[in-house]
Design a protein that fits this description.
- The protein is mainly α.
- About 70% of the residues lie in helices and about 0% in strands.
- It has a domain of about 45 residues.
- It has 4 helices and no strands.
């Protein structure tokens, strides 16, 4: 089955809409309470970071999440120095 080129982006947009609907109705089971009480935009931003990485590297969401996490650790290590 051939999927159109925009299929991953559309799936991601559908997932964001689903997350918005579920979180918007008061159920917080999709995010940790500490995140739910903090910045309400952060879960969406985190999801979009992973989705953008997934599309950019043409990989699944799980691998993209690892890429995002490793890049964040690398940036902090570079800014702080190796043993700071």
């Amino acid at each position: 089955m051939d999927l159109p080129h925009h299929a991953p982006a559309q799936r991601g947009a559908d997932m964001i809409q689903d997350l918005d609907e579920r979180v918007g109705d008061g159920s917080r089971h999709l995010v940790r309470p500490s995140i739910a009480l903090g910045d309400p935009q952060r879960p969406r931003e985190a999801f979009r970071d992973v989705l953008d990485t997934s599309v950019r590297y043409k990989t699944d969401m799980r691998t993209a999440a690892y890429i995002v996490a490793i890049n964040r650790v690398a940036q902090v290590t570079k800014l702080r120095g190796m043993y700071a």
